Amino acid sequence: MPGLLQTCEELFETRDLYKVIGVENTASEKEVKKGYYRMSMRFHPDRNSDDEKSTEKFQALSKVYSILSDSGKRALYDESGEIDDEADVDQDRDWTSYWRLLFPQVTLQAILEFEKKYKGSEEELEELTAAYQEHEGDMDAIMDSVTLATMEDEPRFRRLLQEQVSSGTLPDFPAFSQEQRSKKQHRKRKAKKEAKEAEAARKELGMDESEDALKKMIAQRSQSRESGFNSFMADLEARYAPKGKKTKKGKK
C-alpha cells in the first residue's frame, strides 16, 4: 500500500501537503482548516460521481489535514519533508465521519450568508485567478473549481480575468482568449441540464421554491441518506434559494 506522500503525488501531482489543500506552508491553523474544507468539498464523492478517483482524493485530503492540524506532526513534516505513515495516519478511520465532526451540517441560512460574503470578495478573486493559472485559462475547469460558481458568474469572471490579462498581471492563455464558441455552448448546455435535473428532483418531492420547502426537502433527503454526505443538497439549496431579496441570493 503506497504511503500518503506517494498517494498525493499520484492524485494531486505533488508531494507537498500544503499544496494539496491549497495553502502556504506559513498558513495558520484556521487557514489550514479552511483550505481542507474547500478542497474536500470540491473532491467529495457525492459531488464527483463521474470521477472514479474521488473517494481516494477525499480520503487523502482528510489524511493530509490530520497531519497538518496536529502541531507535533506538522512540525515533524516541516522539518523533514517526510511523514511516518504508520504513526501519523490512522488508516482505519472513517474519514467521512471525521469530516462531519470537524464541520457542522450545512444549512440554507449558512450557505446564503457565506455566498453573500464570498461573491465579489478578494478571496473569490484570489481563487479565480489561482484557478485560471492552474488550468491555463480553461473555463470549463475554472468554473468547476471556483467555490459556488454558476453560469451566471461566467461573464463577471471573464471580465475580471480579462482585466488582469490586459494589465499583464496574468498570462494570456489561448484556451481563455481564443476559446471556441462551441466549447462555450457546450458548457451552457451542461449547466442547463444540471439545473433541469435539480429542478426535477425538487418537483419530485412536491416542493415549491419557498425557503420552508427547501428546508423540508433537505430534511427528507437527509433521512434517506443518513450514511451519506449532504453536499448535493447544499448545491440544491444554493441553486434554488429564494431570489429577489437583498440579503439572500441563490444558485446551485
UniProtKB/TrEMBL annotation:
It comes from the Eukaryota. Keywords: Coiled coil, Phosphoprotein. Residues 111-145 form a coiled coil. One of its GO terms (molecular function) is heat shock protein binding. Residues 168-252 are annotated as: Disordered. PANTHER family: DNAJ HOMOLOG SUBFAMILY C MEMBER 9 (PTHR44144:SF1). This is DnaJ homolog subfamily C member 9. It comes from Branchiostoma lanceolatum. Residues 16-81 form the J domain.
